[in-house]
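Hi P.,

Sorry for the delay on this. The queue was packed all week, but I finally got your sequence through. Input first:
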Amino acid sequence: MAQHTPAPDPRTAAQFALVHRVRAEIGRVIVGQHALIDRLLIALLTNNHALIEGVPGLAKTLTVSTLARTLDCSFARIQFTPDLLPADITGTLVFNPADGAFRVRRGPVFANVVLADEINRAPAKVQSALLEAMQERQVTIGGETLPLPDPFLVLATQNPIEHEGTYPLPEAQLDRFMLKVIVHYPEREEERLILRRGLEGADDHVEAVTGPAQIAQLREAVAAVELNERLREYVLRLMEATRDPARYQLAPLAPLIEFGASPRAGVFLARAAQAYAFIHERDYVTPDDVKALAPDVLRHRIITTYEAEAQSMSTETIVQRLLEGVGIP
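Then the structure:
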């Protein structure tokens, strides 16, 4: 007797279709960059934030603004500069001479999607203004605590090729970002299409295909994606291997890693894998999902030693060797 395969849940199928429409609508404006789009959606669907790194001209800003329009969410772009003040981000108290009282003027951080453009160009006191907002989803102005809108997504960009006049993000700030996404140059045919659109003029209009209420439902569905015990153990082993490589027959990596990943990294990796499976229309996580997201979750959390720098050993290479050496239970 043939085994009966249950029909997919109509609600789940509709949610898969909605995410597919979001990706397709963004693709009408953005050529390629599928990995970036997927990872921005992962941050959104897990209620987290992402750091985007890439050279200028790779459509990082356009991708973020297009995402906001597709989601029918408010959008704010903050250009970080050395003379920026914390109040320029969060807001400040403004005196009203009519009634002699101070009133709160909200800053651009009070938006659903906030683009912190070139975040490493502002000093630490300005960067830290985002800490409370990112972690606590609230801002304190003049002793008054104000909640931020829901959804609230911070997407920060930084330029990897300029170091003069920049302020590297401290580890505590980096840890607030679930993912650090590296944006690469487009493929030749993609760049050909970009050139054609640039010369002929492209229609950058997109339709809003969802809204905040549906985003909340999608997040609930992502949280319900199955992550079995074997894969949870696999995530745990990967985290342990960053701190004690010798335990997994990776002793040569030990002198290269000064600090491994924290338990928060393991939670982020598991949740990112759930979202990755969901946007690829599955209600269960596979080992490949974990492997696909491990570099984005770990590249800014593994602190390398001077010896690693002397050997030109990047965190990318270290993560790849961890994935090759740690077996799936």
